[in-house]
Design brief:
single chain; alpha/beta; TIM Barrel; eight-stranded parallel barrel; about 15% strand
């Protein structure tokens, strides 16, 4: 069975953007017997070494570990925001060894303010290259993250092109099952009875052989198992691609299921599907 991690930001509905999310995720990871927790930079109170080391000790004392740390990206801001983003990425890379974390997750940027897709793609590629060069010197991995919300890369073709054009041994790829174009949740909201479009699964099939990690997105817009995304189909694709990396479960509520209940359900559901 693939190692499972819980994305701490999934508990935002209960704890807001605070490190209480990290503690809650670590408690549940220990309870469910999964590997650990993934975090986001916005959940960290500071980058002070003493704070980070205490946080790492708190998580590890529960018998679980950290996976990756994600970098917040302002998807609605123009390309002029990228230099600040790179600066924040470098500061995060400098801080992560104090947490014992060896990987940073970085999405692309939004195609906004009259920018073309082409110029945005080039700017994102250059951003990823710079961050990878810095991470390589620090011995860290950079996970390129497909993300929509009007961003690039958000299709299978765009992901594969960027993976080919960025030249760095630090580069890796995390496949987000709910953030390709064609996903009902990829633009921030949708009707409760919507289903994913074929384009989503086409992109997953294209990118699964390159994925070293999967962000398994759950929305639970209606009662029962996840309905927006066809997880039996997604798991079949991953098995066919011989994917054996970690799975990070991410909950973005579109109904009234609280995060604690949703994460329990998602873990049990994925375990069952991978064991079938």
């Amino acid at each position: 069975m693939n190692l499972i991690y819980l994305q701490a930001l999934s508990f935002e509905d209960l704890y807001g953007n605070t490190d209480d999310c990290i503690h809650a995720a670590a408690d549940m990871a220990a309870e469910l017997g999964v590997a650990g927790v993934d975090i986001e930079d916005r959940l960290l109170t500071s980058y002070e070494p003493e704070y980070l080391q205490e946080l790492a000790h708190s998580v590890e004392s529960r018998g679980v570990s950290f996976g990756y740390c994600g970098l917040i990206v302002p998807f609605h801001e123009p390309l002029s925001s990228i230099p600040d983003e790179i600066k924040r990425a470098k500061s995060l890379i400098d801080a992560l060894p104090h947490l014992g974390i060896g990987a940073i997750r970085v999405p692309g940027n939004g195609v906004v303010n009259g920018q073309s897709l082409e110029e945005t793609f080039v700017a994102v590629r250059n951003k990823i290259q710079i961050i990878c060069d810095y991470a390589e010197d620090a011995g860290l991995t950079v996970f390129l993250h497909n993300h929509n919300h009007g961003s690039t890369p958000s299709t299978g073709e765009q992901v594969l092109q960027m993976l080919e054009e960025v030249d760095s041994p630090a580069l890796s790829y995390v496949l987000d099952s709910g953030q390709f174009q064609g996903s009902p949740g990829s633009s921030g909201g949708s009707a409760p009875d919507d289903e994913a479009q074929p384009q989503l699964y086409e992109s997953i099939e294209m990118c699964a052989p390159r994925a070293k990690m999967v962000r398994a997105k759950f929305y639970f817009a209606a009662d029962g198992d996840e309905q927006w995304l066809d997880y039996p189909r997604i798991v079949r694709i991953l098995k066919y691609a011989d994917f054996d990396g970690p799975i990070s479960i991410v909950y973005e509520p579109r109904g009234d299921v609280v995060s604690k209940d949703a994460m329990h359900t998602a873990v049990a559901y994925l375990r069952r599907l991978f064991q079938e």
